[in-house]
């Protein structure tokens, strides 16, 4: 690569613009968790958290990595009354052979978190500084990720990962409904179990009774307020053996939006014999702009699209899916997101009956979901070099 020789003036760190990784202080946990294999620590939070505070007058404080601990919060603070909270979710992956740690496209999480913050009147920050801090935090916590250099790993063991959760909350203690003048940014991390990739059973919601998001609403923002109200319908669906709800929108058109807190794709052939990989569009604000969704679309367009296969973002109704199934044109369906990764869908509960979704295209060859999943795994575990994987030093 040719080094750039463009002269730019040194950036002035303005605390009203962002927190800055250069200002980071670290105070290590004096009582670190003892373990030999981090994989035995299921659902355990790591030993540290990253924190930066904001005030409308003074801007952002210097970020600090400090021992993980409960937060002292004023009972009158904004987040506890008006839900001024948003979050992100991403994974740090450790390659079991090389020990190298990568984060997948953290710049997209930074951008999305800024958008979510804006939607609920929380302050913004620099995407680059967010990524730098995230990498720094993972560097401190990477002993929570197993690899062969430190523990014995079997051939069939997967590469290990840690779940990262950036959060922002409004902390101003004031009972009036008002834009918070104080906020707190945090990054925490947890061991979570790998999703077992059992094919999913989804229950299509009844859009007269429950919708997840609506045009002009806030479904496109990763704000906490989107998730609490989905828990009752989700546990009702779970009682009937469904893993997630397939959220429909509009009683007439019954548009397919998302599967639980994951994006949804369907693959079918058209009556003319063309294959289409279809997902709902971002245009009306009811769909979360998933990093996995975006990556699936980009890889599919780059590596699968051809004259006979098209990758499409467009509105589609559940009745179109049912029709494709009835006419034997349904090829497969899958949900995707950081938590689930790419999970095949085996069944769709629609109007009281279960539609069986094929799990492998034409019997022998790998399904599209499997193929895309393999490509993505190669990228975020560093098996192949790719611009989407940010490496931790
Ligand atoms: C987080 C989330 C997704 C998945 O986004 P990724 O960036 O791929 O993890 C999809 N839908 C909803 C509603 C979500 O909250």
TrEMBL record:
CDD domains: BCAT_beta_family (cd01557). GO terms for molecular function: transaminase activity. Gene3D superfamilies: 3.30.470.10, D-amino Acid Aminotransferase, subunit A, domain 2. PROSITE patterns: AA_TRANSFER_CLASS_4. It catalyses: L-isoleucine + 2-oxoglutarate = (S)-3-methyl-2-oxopentanoate + L-glutamate; L-valine + 2-oxoglutarate = 3-methyl-2-oxobutanoate + L-glutamate; L-leucine + 2-oxoglutarate = 4-methyl-2-oxopentanoate + L-glutamate. Keywords: Amino-acid biosynthesis, Aminotransferase, Branched-chain amino acid biosynthesis, Pyridoxal phosphate, Transferase. It comes from the Eukaryota. Its cofactor is pyridoxal 5'-phosphate. Its EC number is 2.6.1.42. InterPro entries: Aminotrans_IV (IPR001544), Aminotrans_IV_CS (IPR018300), Aminotransferase-like (IPR036038), B_amino_transII (IPR005786), BCAT-like_C (IPR043132), BCAT-like_N (IPR043131), BCAT_family (IPR033939). Belongs to the class-IV pyridoxal-phosphate-dependent aminotransferase family. This is Branched-chain-amino-acid aminotransferase. It comes from Myxozyma melibiosi.
């Amino acid at each position: 690569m040719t080094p750039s020789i463009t002269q730019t003036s040194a950036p002035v760190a303005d605390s009203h613009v962002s927190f800055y990784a250069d200002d980071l202080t670290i105070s290590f946990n004096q009582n670190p968790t003892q373990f030999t294999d981090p994989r035995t620590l299921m659902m355990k939070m790591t030993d540290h958290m990253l924190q930066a505070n904001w005030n409308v007058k003074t801007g952002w404080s210097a970020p600090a990595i400090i021992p993980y601990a409960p937060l002292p919060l004023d009972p009158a603070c904004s987040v506890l009354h008006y839900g001024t909270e948003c979050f992100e979710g991403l994974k740090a992956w450790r390659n079991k052979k090389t020990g190298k740690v990568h984060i997948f496209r953290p710049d997209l999480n930074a951008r999305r978190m800024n958008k979510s913050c804006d939607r609920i009147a929380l302050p913004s920050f620099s995407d680059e500084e967010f990524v730098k801090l995230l990498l720094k935090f993972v560097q401190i916590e990477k002993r929570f990720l197993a690899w062969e250099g430190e523990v014995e790993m079997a051939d069939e063991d997967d590469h290990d990962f840690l779940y990262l959760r950036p959060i922002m909350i409004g902390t101003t203690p004031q009972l009036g409904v008002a834009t918070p003048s104080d906020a707190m940014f945090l990054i925490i991390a947890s061991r979570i179990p790998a999703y077992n990739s059992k094919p999913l059973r989804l229950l299509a919601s009844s859009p007269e009774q429950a919708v997840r998001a609506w045009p002009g609403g806030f479904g496109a923002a990763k704000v906490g307020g989107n998730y609490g109200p989905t828990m009752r319908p989700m546990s009702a669906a779970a009682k009937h053996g469904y893993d997630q709800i397939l959220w429909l929108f509009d009683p007439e058109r019954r548009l397919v939006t998302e599967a639980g807190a994951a994006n949804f794709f369907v693959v079918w052939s058209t009556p003319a014999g063309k294959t289409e990989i279809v997902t709902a569009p971002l245009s009306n604000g009811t769909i979360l702009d998933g990093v996995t969704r975006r990556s699936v679309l980009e890889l599919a367009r780059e590596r699968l699209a051809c004259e006979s296969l098209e990758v499409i973002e467009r509105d589609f109704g559940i009745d179109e899916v049912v029709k494709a199934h009835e006419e034997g044109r349904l090829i497969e369906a899958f949900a995707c997101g950081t938590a689930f990764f790419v999970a095949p869908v085996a069944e769709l509960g629609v109007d009281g009956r279960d539609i069986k979704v094929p799990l492998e295209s034409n019997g022998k060859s790998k399904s599209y979901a499997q193929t895309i999943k393999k490509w993505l795994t190669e990228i975020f575990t560093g098996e192949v070099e790719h611009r989407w994987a940010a490496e931790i030093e």
